[in-house]
């Protein structure tokens, strides 16, 4: 069945809006075609010839509402709400649908990893089968409770606040897509609030700590070089790993990296310091990887920690902490927050403002480092 928005002019200078439900046609014994249509009055009207800005805006708002009603009705029909067709879509398996959406994101390594981790939690809680028609508000809330209280990481730790937020957002995104695909006509995900975004500690290193690391030996030299380079540039591991020499531009007028960011697939132009360039060593062939033999594994963080202990640094951090370090060092040394945000590739300035809070805290600490003056 096709549902269309129709208009009928009235005598009062307005036009009435209604829906036409077209259910196909039949032929009688003489071959005459009879179209099967039904109509529904929406009790909405628009001005035939709007004269004022108010009337024009009223027309726009009314037409938008009418289109939304039509879209909802079509989705309801397509999903079998009215019994006009098979309920095969609503009887589909949400878990399989989620896996399909996960597989479609395979090319995006970070995003695919988050979807895949969420998929594992879904199967851990629901098993391999959960029909759309059975995925009610209550079951969504129950899964949210599972993420909050029971779910653990492969290392046996509870999920961090923002990991819970991310996984639950994936479930809601899948339900939104199912609504767009007209598998469901009612989206229960809209009625269940997600987790609030939490401010989490962003471990970073001070300049003196980075200097200590530079002087200390690391079991894997490529990891040491990549980490220090990230501290100086703010580049993500995924972008350093694939960086080639043709992307490192250097001449009298510029010293920068021109690369396609793996996370966003956007072309980036990042100026780097001479210190960062010198760290990379002798220039190789254009297609050659700048830091070869670099591979992120489950042991990478352990390698970083052992390196830090050798340097006399006793704090927990990951490779991603190099980006936090770069942001703090830039802000501490006078860079404005907008420049830092742009260099790190943040979509929203509020993401960068978290680092500004760290720097502000250090200012407060600095106020108390002067020895007490006794009167």
Plain-language structure description:
The chain is of the alpha+beta class. It is 45% helix and 14% strand. The chain has 13 helices and six strands. The chain has helices spanning 53-78, 94-103, 109-126, 137-149, 161-180, 207-215, 221-233, 237-241, 274-280, 300-310, 321-332, 337-344, 349-366, and strands spanning 2-9, 14-27, 33-47, 248-250, 255-260, 267-271. The protein has a three-stranded antiparallel β-sheet with strand order 1-2-3, with helices on one face. The chain has a three-stranded antiparallel β-sheet with strand order 4-5-6, with no helix packed on it. Strand 2 and strand 3 form a beta hairpin. Helix 4 packs antiparallel against helix 5 (161-180) and helix 11 crosses helix 13. The protein starts with a strand and ends in a 9-residue tail after the last helix. 20% of the residues are buried. The model is unreliable at 82-86 (pLDDT under 50).
